[in-house]
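Weekly structure sync - notes
Attendees: PM, LS, DV (DV joined late)
Agenda: review two folding runs queued last week.

Item 1: First target. Sequence and structure tokens pasted below for the record.
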Amino acid sequence: MGLQIRDERQMKALTGLSQAQFDSLLPVFSDIYRATQQQTYEEGVQSGTRRRHPGGGSKGKLPTMAEKLQFVLYYYKTYPTFDVLGTQFDMVRSKAHENLHKLSPILYNTLVHLELMPYRELGTPDDLKAALHGVDRLIIDATERAYHRSQEDAKQREHYSGKKNSIR
């Protein structure tokens, strides 16, 4: 079943990518998927638990690489429940859950390989400078956070910023 995408607008609405972006992501996703399958196969052979070669057995509800990529992109764009995701792709919710957790690391590795993943942790000012290399303007959207105020007057004065009404 899968997604029945009719046009560019619907493609962007369901996956977050244009058809051209999807087409450029697909070959890298396929290569990383095959490499992961091969590694799993080799580990299974070494441990003695694997009997089939990669690609053997039943094909499942996501037989093509394009359907696998659409599946994981659709999930991250819309965040449906596993019941809804399974219904959309003609599988039970447990298989939707299993497929998502199998394909998510492959999508992550694909985005890392293409250098499309944003920096998540910046421990030092040098890390921030490296992350912003080539950026001309930085806009920071900050929100004031609540601060647990001490009941002691001296400690309140120590942390007072001067922005609100003055402390008497």
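Item 2: Second target, run right after the first with the same settings.
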Amino acid sequence: MNRRKEITNAYKERKLYGGVYTITNILTGKYLIGHTANLKSMQNRFLFAMAAGSAVHPKLQKDWEELGAQAFTLEVLEELEQRPDQSQAEFMDDLKTLEQLCRANLNASKEY
């Protein structure tokens, strides 16, 4: 039972990293920008979608099917650690603001 308690405590004490990312079609330059409270989860989801051949987002579906998963890359633009005193809602608000700042540096005409 001690091992289970250790694992539970380690899970609760882990540092959470969220951030802003783009999924870019390297052939056309078109991109999808987003934010997530768990970057590792998003990276795993992207890798799974590539292996399974299914698009990670509906907006990418047509190009994903026509060009294949190898035509897309995932790039983390900004990373943010959730503070211990920060609620999930506050963290998501910070990530949304960070996404807006990153979006201002991108070419809006290339967005999916």
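Discussion on item 2: Residues 88-103 form the longest helix (16 residues).
Action: LS to circulate a short write-up before next sync.
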